Every structure is written in C-alpha cells, then in structure tokens.
C-alpha cells in the first residue's frame, strides 16, 4: 500500500506572526533605520570567546519600506556564513526575508523535489530562522566597542 504525502499548505497566521515578531526584533536592534540609514555591528560571544559579529546594514530606505542586509562575520571556521536580505514594511510592521545566500524572491510553496532544492515551506523556514537569529542576538549580543 503506497501512502501519498499530504500537500504542504501555507499557514498565513504563522507566517504573519513570524514577520511581525521579526519586525519588533529588528526595530530593537536598529531603532533609527528609517531616519538614519546606518550599519550596526553586534558581537556575540561566550565568555571571553568571540563567536561572531552580526552586521546589519541598511541598503535601501524608502518612506514605507527599508531593506536590511544581515550577515555574520568572524565566525567559526567550520560554520557556513549566513547572510540574508530582509525587507521591512513599516506601515504593516512586518519584516520578511527576500533573499538568502544566492536565492531571491521566495515563493510560498515549492513542489518537492525541485531544481533549486528548496523545501516546500522554504519561505516560512527562512523567516523562522531569522527570528531565532535575531532573538539570539538580542539575548547574547553586545556592542563591539566599549562605550565610554
């Protein structure tokens, strides 16, 4: 007896909740991104060991949207360097991943298998990962240079 896998369905409430939470996290990390496009470097360490530096760079600023490039520098040598482009919608108070690694403009659902090797819920997974990444940065991150 052959069982067919149930087709993936987008949970819009979960996706919107993740994007709204990501907006709040980004606003805590870059509160003046709308008025003063800037770059912020946040160190993440464990004890005396530097694990990496999260770099948030505003690449585009418009009246209702901002695009932020997020990457990590000075990582552990065996760790792939994550990087994402995030579109921040200020009027809707949402932040959504629009690019990651070499891929851009993600669809809500992908058939599986596919040539790009995306998971059926790739867009949702990327937005959830962004939330975990920013949440970890808020919990464990600190300014790179000491403030005097």
From TrEMBL:
InterPro entries xref list: DUF1249
Superkingdom field: Bacteria
Any matching Pfam family: DUF1249
Protein's name in the database: DUF1249 domain-containing protein
Organism from which the protein derives: Stutzerimonas zhaodongensis
Organism ancestry: Bacteria, Pseudomonadati, Pseudomonadota, Gammaproteobacteria, Pseudomonadales
């Amino acid at each position: 007896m052959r069982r067919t896998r149930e087709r993936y369905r987008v949970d819009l409430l979960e996706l919107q909740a993740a994007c709204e939470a990501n907006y709040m996290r980004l606003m805590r990390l870059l509160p003046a991104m709308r008025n003063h496009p800037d770059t912020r470097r946040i160190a993440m360490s464990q004890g005396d060991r530097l694990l990496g530096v999260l770099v948030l760079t505003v690449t585009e600023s418009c009246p209702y949207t901002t695009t932020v490039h997020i990457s990590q520098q000075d990582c552990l040598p065996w760790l792939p360097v994550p990087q994402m482009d995030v579109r921040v919608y200020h009027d809707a108070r949402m932040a959504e991943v629009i690019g990651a690694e070499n891929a851009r403009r993600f669809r809500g659902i992908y058939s599986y298998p596919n040539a790009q090797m995306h998971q059926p819920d790739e867009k949702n997974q990327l937005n959830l990962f962004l939330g975990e990444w920013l949440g970890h940065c808020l919990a464990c991150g600190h300014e790179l240079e000491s403030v005097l």
